[in-house]
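Hi there,

I know you've been waiting on this one. I reran it after we fixed the sequence typo, so this is the corrected version. Both the input and the resulting structure follow.
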Amino acid sequence: MFNKIKLNIVFIALIIGFSTCVTQSYSQSDDSEYAVTAYINAGYSRFISELEDDDLNKNGFSGTIRLMWEPEHLLSVGIESGYLQLYNFHTQRTINGISFSGSSELNAVPILMVFSMELFENFKISFGSGIFLLNSKVDALDNLVNSNQISTGILAGASYLHPLSHTLSLGGEIKYYLINKIEDGDLSLQVSLQYKFLTY
């Protein structure tokens, strides 16, 4: 676990270093605009795992909210949270004439520090690191077991947003979350609404 945490720290440090080198090539004018922006995302989630079973559903919903401080032509920084449905499992089986039913599900709430940079007009890449609050529910033989765990993890994403006005943009984002504790990931395809609620 300690080695994974160190790997995440090195990953973010490399991204910050690379982004800083790139942004130094931009000349800043006195009328540069700064903004605080909210991104509201919702869409499809696909659990990426080697787990296989006919009753295992790896498809679900993902919804996230990201708040970013965005200097013009510079690296943006912020925080992201939300809700990821990783998988659910429902089965009904009969053994020696006796029927058994069971279900389980795993969901996650990410709390991540995110760095973002615009590579091309309206196209951004994002990287992040932080923790995932994992919630697991198992229902077997009419006994419900609910457990919670914390894991470190990382995020990598890319988005395209088309401006609708000076404060609103609409587009899409693809994101990959790697959750260290379960050593599996989640791929999310989301519709993204951007709202600049503060500019200065």
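Quick highlight: Residues 18-30 have pLDDT under 50 and may be disordered.

Best,
R. S.
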